[in-house]
Amino acid sequence: DEVFTRQAEEALEHAEKSRYTGKFARHQSESTERIDLTGLQKRMENEMNSLKRKFSAEQLKLAELRKAYEEAVSERDGMAEQLEKGVRKQEEMEKRMEDMQTRCDAAEAERTALKRQLADQQSAPKDDTSQPLTVRNQLQAAALERKELHKELSHLKSALAEKRSTPAPGSAGSGGLGTSGGAGFWGSAKKATLGGGATVLQL
User: Fold this and answer.
1) Where is the composition biased (Basic and acidic residues) (predicted)?
2) Cα 72 versus chain centre, distance
């Protein structure tokens, strides 16, 4: 009986120890899992914060790129408008140059006709000296007008050539294509006043 009782007590003690040992093991396992979950949560929070910082930096870069793009578009529009104005101005200058050339041609034709008329009158019998003088004055006036027209046309052509050759302001032009006139006989003409208040030209 004593042996049986001792064995029963030992078995009961062993069972009690096993039960406590199992509880302790489970407790340790749960504690380890909680520690692992806490560490995982901390790592996830750190990673989330890092992603937030990267996202903020990317948003800042995107805002800078958008601003640079808007500035580039504005600059492009300004350049396009400036180019359009330059084209219009060039067309106006070309039109003025064509008009001036037409006036020069007309003045040249008138001068030629007056020279022919003066030559005819000088070769004819000189009954009336006022007619050759009037034609001569008209011829000189036409020559002076032609000189001024050629001068203005030369300036226009020079400005147009300069604008076409270089966009930089202040660059020297290549000079006009037309003649400036004003040399010799026709360049020495000056104004005089006849009777009656009419202004004519004399040598």
Assistant:
1) 7-19, 73-113, 155-165
2) 11
